[in-house]
Amino acid sequence: MKDRVHVDVMNKEIAELMEQHNYFNFNSKTRKEQFMFALSVGVKSGLEGMKLNKKHEWFWTRDLKDEDIALIKAVAVSKTKDPEILNDEEAVFIESESYASLGFKLLSEMINNSSFDTFEKEFELSLYETAKDLESQEEH
Questions:
Q1: Which residues, 6 or more positions from 78, have their beta carbon under 8 angstroms from its beta carbon?
Q2: Is it the case that residue 93 has pLDDT exceeding 80?
């Protein structure tokens, strides 16, 4: 397994801003937790992941748990629509790194385009609506 997970270098500044202001409780999150959070935001957006222009080492892969690796693999298969990607570990990580980088960018845009009071409320509302959608899907 590769030894490090990367994000685009611009995400370092975004994460530092989020930690400084404690957006989404980022200052108490590990780099892995921040990555997984950004990954979920990037995937949920429905947009295409972004290519990393300049890689920045984010955390060690030894910090990943089995469920983290399973999620990273699921994202790769889901987004590429190709189960064969699982045969190429580097491609799997490139895919998840691109969606985490997108997630950081989207979080930054949310912060910059909203007042402090409203952007977290908007995000919470989005999560609530997603949970309601999942509940209604389970009922059918």
A1: 43
A2: yes
